Amino acid sequence: MNVHQATALFRRVLENPEVTAESDFFDAGGDSLLATRVLSAVARDHGVELTFEDFLLAPTPATLAGAVSAGAVSGGAVSGGAVPTGAVSGGAVSAGAVSDGAVSGGPR
Questions:
Q1: What is the tens place of the pLDDT at every residue in 40-63?
Q2: Distance CA 61, CA 12 (A)
Q3: Which string of b and e fits 65-96 if b means at least 16 CB within 10 Å?
């Protein structure tokens, strides 16, 4: 994921064409529910599953693009919490896996 793709994703999810590469997702009107849409799109489109904590550490398009790139290089592991989409552990999809645009599994 590059910065332009991340910026476009933020603009789409936030319905805000004013978002720039340095815009903070939450300052631009985002909330935790909208953040799950961003995380789902990242997992679906780029094969890197980030945790919500990862997103809190990378709340701008520029930092998110860097986190996704780091996750893609390291097989999806970012901040010790992200896993590749569809990662299987013990025959079940890992907790917090993203599927069909919704977050499933993991603590609530």
A1: 999 999 999 999 999 999 999 999
A2: 12
A3: bbbbbbbeeeebbbbeebbbbeeeeeeebbeb
Average pLDDT value for residue range 17-37 = 97
User: Residue 39 — φ and ψ, nearest 5°?
Assistant: -60, -40
Q: What is the architecture of the domain spanning 3-103?
A: Orthogonal Bundle (1.10)
Q: What is the pTM assigned to this prediction?
A: 0.68
DSSP structure class, residue 105: S
Q: C-alpha distances in angstroms, 35 versus 65, 78, 103? A: 14, 17, 11
Q: What are the residue boundaries of the structural domains of the chain, listed by start?
A: 3-103
φ/ψ of 73, rounded to 5, equals -70, -40
